[in-house]
Amino acid sequence: HQPISFRAAISDAPVETDGNGKPDVLRLTVHVNVAIAGAYHVYGTLQIGFSSSLYAQGDAWLPVGPGVLVLDFDGFQILGNYTDGPYVVDVSVSEDVSGYWIATTHTTGAYPFDMWDNPYGNLVSPIEVVPRDTDGDGEFNEVEVRATIAAKVRADFYVYFYLWLGGDYLTGDADETGGPGTFSVSHTFPG
What is the model's pLDDT at position 54? Predict the structure, then answer.
């Protein structure tokens, strides 16, 4: 006699937790039928691409009948992997006393990686591109690319800049300390 079984499909949804309008966690809701009341544990491994995994776990004391267990995956960690969904999640549920467990696999929605909140700050659109004629000959000698950061806390921000030139590109970077509040960082590319 099994103490627990899956009752319905696992659902997933982005959840915003800090009031700024961007989701902070990817929440999986695991629906189960409980035959033996007790402490249950849910574990999840979210696969991002071919080489990265995120882990989440949750616990609940569940009475006999329909029950719900929740897994929250950190949206900032998803953001940091630069890979759009859908993601495959291996889910297992175990019962505390007997050690009985069940497992399944769930595929999430197709969430873009950049939808998740960054707890430190976010880039603000638009990015400014300012061409300059530094020697007065009527031709541009350099281009400044300027990004604005809305920082939630005072922190060091490292920004990469890519300037596309047809089939090639130039790279640059800037390292600035700022926040909380809005401030700009820039990089100047030679013409």
Answer: 95
Per-residue model confidence (pLDDT) at position 91: 97
Which residues on neighbouring strands pair with residue 169, listed in sequence order? Answer: 164
Q: 24: part of which helix (H) or strand (E)? A: none
- Terminal-residue alpha carbon distance, the chain: 74
Residue 107 contacts residue 79 (beta carbons within 8 Å): no
Kindly report each contact of residues 99-104 with a partner whose C-beta sits within 8 Å and lies 24 or more positions away, as own/partner: 100/2, 100/3, 100/4, 102/2, 102/4, 102/5, 102/6, 104/6, 104/10
Those residues of the chain that have pLDDT short of 50 are none
Identify the DSSP state of 114. G
CB 58 within 8 A of CB 69: yes
Beta-sheet strand order (sheet of 101-107): 52-62, 38-48, 88-95, 101-107
Q: Which pLDDT value is given to residue 162?
A: 86
Q: What percent of the chain has pLDDT over 90?
A: 64
Q: What is the DSSP string of 53-102?
A: EEEEEEEEEE-SEEEEEEEEEEHHHHHTTT--S--EEEEEEEETTT--EE
